Structure of Diheme cytochrome c:
Amino acid sequence: MQTSTKTIAMLAIAFLSLGAVGLALGDSDDDDHEKREKGGGWVKSRPDVAPVVNATYSEECGSCHMAYQPGLLPGDAWTQIMSPAGLSNHYGDDASLTDEVRTDITAFLLNNSADQAERSRSRAFAVSANQSVQADGTSLPRITETRYFMHEHDEIPARLVTGNPKVGSFSQCNSCHRGAAEGIYNEKQVSIPGHGRWED
C-alpha cells in the first residue's frame, strides 16, 4: 500500500513536470516580440525599440509630434536633425532650442540611436538609413525614407494612410500602431483608423 502511494506520487510529479516543459516549449514558439504575462493568460507585447526615457525630449519634441524613439534612426541622422540649422528648418517649421536643451536632447538621441541599440528592429533601421539623403545635406533624414520602413509598409495602400483623413501621413506612427508611444510596432498592435486591423 505504501509502495502504491509512492508510485502514484511519483507519477503525478512526472506528469506535472511534463506539463511545465510543454508550457515552456509552447512559449518559445510564440512571436519573438511577445510574451505571456503570468497568471492571466493575456499576451503582452514587448517594445521593438527602446522606449523614450528622457523627460526633456518628451516635453520639447513630444509637444508637437510623437517623440520618436532614438532607435528609429542612426546617430548621423539625429546629428543632422538636432543641428542648429536642422532645427531652424525642422521639416518646414522653426524648432530652434537653447544650446543647453539641444545638447541634452542630442546626447540622449545619440546614446540610444539605432546604431547603438541592441534590439534587432533598431539595427534594421540603422543599416537601412538612406545615406544619399544624409550625404547631400539639402534635406533632413526621415524615418519614413529608410529602406526598412519602406519595406515594412510597402503593401499598405496609400488610401489607408496618406489618403485617410484620420491618419494623413506615414509619419503619424501612433495613428495606426497602438503601442507606438511605448516602442511597440508589431503587426498585432496595428489598427488603421477607419479600416481596422492590418496584417500582411
Q: What stands out?
A: The chain has a mean pLDDT of 81. The first helix runs from residue 2 to 28.
